[in-house]
Amino acid sequence: MPLRSGARTRLAALCATAATLTALLHSPAHAGEPLPAPPSRTVSGWLPYWDQEGAYADVLRHAAQLHTVSPFWYQAKAADRIDGHPGAGETRIIDGLHQAGIKVVPTVMETLKAGELAAILTDPAARATHVETLLALVRSRAYDGIDIDYESIAPTGDADYPAVRAAYAAFAGELCGRLRASAKSCVLTVSPQTATTGRIWDYAVLGRVADRVRIMGYDLHWQGGDAGPLASPQWYDDILRRATALIPADRLEMGVPAYGWDWVEGGKTRHVTWKEAEALRVAKGAPYRLDPDSGTPHFSYEEDGAVRQVWYQDAAGLTADLPVLSRYGIHHTAIWALGFEDPAVWPVLGRV
């Protein structure tokens, strides 16, 4: 496909820059000097199956910073049944990630009806069956472990809450113990715990049994609520103050958003990646501006007589959160999702 003139100009500039750098590195002034150290691998991320090729290419571009990729490939349907999404288990992807030095720890999620997952977890026999089913999945490919993202139990009511919380902790302990015995990683993805959310997760137990606990640090404002930032330094401070009191900081990964939401009053909220949000902002002629409290970008535009508001995350927003992560000793992050992100976040993530 022919390059557009702008792309040709950028390509020419890139080639010229590369030639200049090559000359500098081989000049007498640089002879014998060590090359800059490569960025450390402090980032993990979820690979979305619905944009598998684009996300995979994104991963390979940033492989030097990624230690683990979790393809979002599987869905638990019952104690003894796990279904694959399109493209699940593709050997080419698994092998390519391994060749890039990246661990492959696929995600198993669920969208079971209210009470179904709780029933599996609170029944010892059903729970044991589910653990065996998950272990069989790990053995089915050259996987390095598994990431469990079970969220339907989060809104469990007061009457059932203690039993479900204890049952999930027991499940995590049984699964992680078996995985560790096989030299496989056990990753647990959880909702953030604040004064009003995340009570179902027994952070103290999960922190003892899991290799990594990923906190979903996004959707402070979500598609079902009012417009606003997806994250903020103040929110992260609340989350990490509680989390690090119960889980060692070196076992925590802070999940960061690479997307946004496009809200309209009384209408449907739309999901947008950073790429989509920026393209929309430019197309609508909206100025780039940052919210002074959260440090995140947002804009508004009119459509069909209604005002829509878009809030999303980019490198500037992530930069605003760095002091909080540093204060709590968090050095590992997880991107939701790979291929969604502002390319400028990668140097920022390298400073975490």
From TrEMBL:
The keyword Signal is annotated on this UniProt entry: yes
Keyword list, A-Z: Glycosidase, Hydrolase, Signal
Hydrolase found in the keyword field: yes
InterPro entries: Chitinase_insertion_sf, GH, Glyco_hydro18_cat, Glyco_hydro_18_chit_AS
Signal peptide boundaries: 1-31
Start and end residues of each GH18 domain: 44-352
Family classification: Belongs to the glycosyl hydrolase 18 family.
The name this protein goes by in its record: GH18 domain-containing protein
Organism of this sequence: Streptomyces xanthochromogenes
